[in-house]
Records
---
Amino acid sequence: MDRLSLYFTAPRQISVRQEALPSPGRGQALVRTLLSAISPGTELLIYRGEFPPELPLDENIPALAGGFAYPIKYGYAAVGEVIGLGADLDSTWLGKQVFAFQPHASHFMAPVEELLLLPEGLAVEEAVFLPNMETALNFVLDGQPLIGEKVVVFGQGIVGLLTTTLLAQFPLADLITLDRYPLRRQASLDLGAQASLDSSDPQELKLGRARLGGSFSGADLVYELSGNPVALDQAIDYCGFNGRVVIGSWYGSKRASLDLGARFHRSRMRLISSQVSSLAPELSGRWGKARRFQVAWDMLQKVKPSRFITHRFPITQAEKAYQLIDQDPSQTIQLVLEY
């Protein structure tokens, strides 16, 4: 059997290759992919060649072993149907719909312990958002929002939007989001943000800062999820005394130039690095990945993020998908590949 696999071959170059696919071995399942989601943050860095070459792809995902060097197979949000099994496996797996952290390909082989069964009744279009929802949940766990706090989220891409919808369920004093693109700002308001401002407009940035004034000046909690290093300086500017700035963006090889000589030094604010590969040590006694997955599945059932799929492309047209994200992101929220 052959499969189609997506490769990043050089900056802004995509190749879809036909490859021979062996039969599943012991403990392995063969999965026919139905849908995979493009990560507009991490994958765009790879597409543009803005990744740090010394960093492993992802040490926590077996399918992404190795380093950043072209050609690269990447992707980590695939939903499919089990169509083959190693001789030692129970046939009840056949026909099951599963999620896997696998690169973009029409078929893949994986040990069954790396497959997550879709909850009954959950559509594949919802399940493909599992990594993004898990990431958003991790951001909320790390930020620890409290009742009555003023919270700001920079960046309303798909992870920012999912973070906003989780935060909107808390009894906050204010929830402000910022993004350059009207499509995403409107989605943010629909999800429960009390204001969504244009992060590229200096006047709107001033309005947001003024909104955070009063007796308790500045935000209690700020998230930087835009992927733009410039926004980190803006996030620090929005943060109040002893506030928290959760940095969920991965900048790759891009550098962040920060002004730490003004308010920052005397404000005792905390900069918190948050990434989904690990849980905060103070939570690990009660939380593990299985618990986080369960909550993420529950949130997918509740939020139904498939409404944020703005574009669908067959894998054979993957190059067009990445060009769209790269050149006209104002029209996109979530792109998926179909097989």
---
Amino acid sequence: MKTRKSSGTVLFFRSPQRREWPTKEKLEGIYRFARARRWRVVTIEAPRTAAAARAAVSGWRPLGCLVDMDASRRVFTPEALGGTPTVFLDFDDRLLGGRTFRVNHDPVAVGTLAAKRLSVLGCTGYAFVGYTREWAWSRARLDAFRAALGPAGDGVRHFEFPAARQPTARIRAAFGRFVAALPRPCGMMLANDALAEELYPACARAGVSIPGDLAVIGVDDDERLCNNLRPSLSSIRLDFDQAGWLLAELLDQRIANPSLNPVVRFYRPIGVAPRETTARSDEATVTDSLVARIDRQIDAHALDGSTVAQILAPLDCSRRTAETRYRVARGKSILAAVRDLRLARAQELLRTTSISVTEVAAACGYARPAHFAALFRARTGLTMSAWRERPSKREN
């Protein structure tokens, strides 16, 4: 990254979908980059017309604009932007004639991850539920899902709901017939989590069991929705923090080089948040280098008494992002992983040495032996002395 500095206002036009949690994660990535450039990031609600967009841009006179918008909206025309450098997030480039700078999710990585998760569940067939071609990203996920399934992908059955419109009673009836006719057991990918609100009632009406007859995986990992469904919905979590960083980074390049040719960059999924709809005893495969770096930091520093904040300090990410991504990948918090490593080391020392329990605590990174003793007893049901003296040497 260049070391030059700049300052000024950057406008972030937030998505009209009004989902709070992805917007917060995108902004975390934007803010991390913006601090180095001394940008003032101003978040603005999505304008409804090109005239409103033009008024906002001309009123603020920003260094540049970041646009997180529903792909069906046509408000950010060249006239509305007035030459202001702009980068779009998950935008359908057909709307502006292929002339935009964009950061998009990677549909191949998303479809491949869904196929990998479902293909190990013993399904006899596969299905995809998405949206009409008006939303090109849905079709891109379907194509990637099919390709990742290999020969089985040729038989994927799919159903399309209307984009940006409530389905009619006729469409819901057709969807019910679609669900009832699926082979069983079937593995189904939803283009996003929201479609589960159509799927679950349809399955109830058709007598289709989830996950017995139908294993389901969504996209976005909307935790409030996924955890409140019964059964809870497994979902692919996208790296919205990375999306925000890439968005700001590309805008910075546009500002520095006005003659730069349009380019698209991709942000990837973090992994699968496994829940009841793809019930398995193992965890999802995670394509996330950050998790591996956290693991290495834990291995290197958990026993020297470092706090979680100190462990994460060299990794250039927010605590919230690190915790979210680590929990998705490992099924536990970073603090729990640190304590697991310390407990394993304590058990090893108690089994193989005769050092005092105070020395064991110190060797495991605890300055207060009594605190570690309480944690050890809570986890094992024994004091350290009793654990060392027990007849069985099997670890608890």
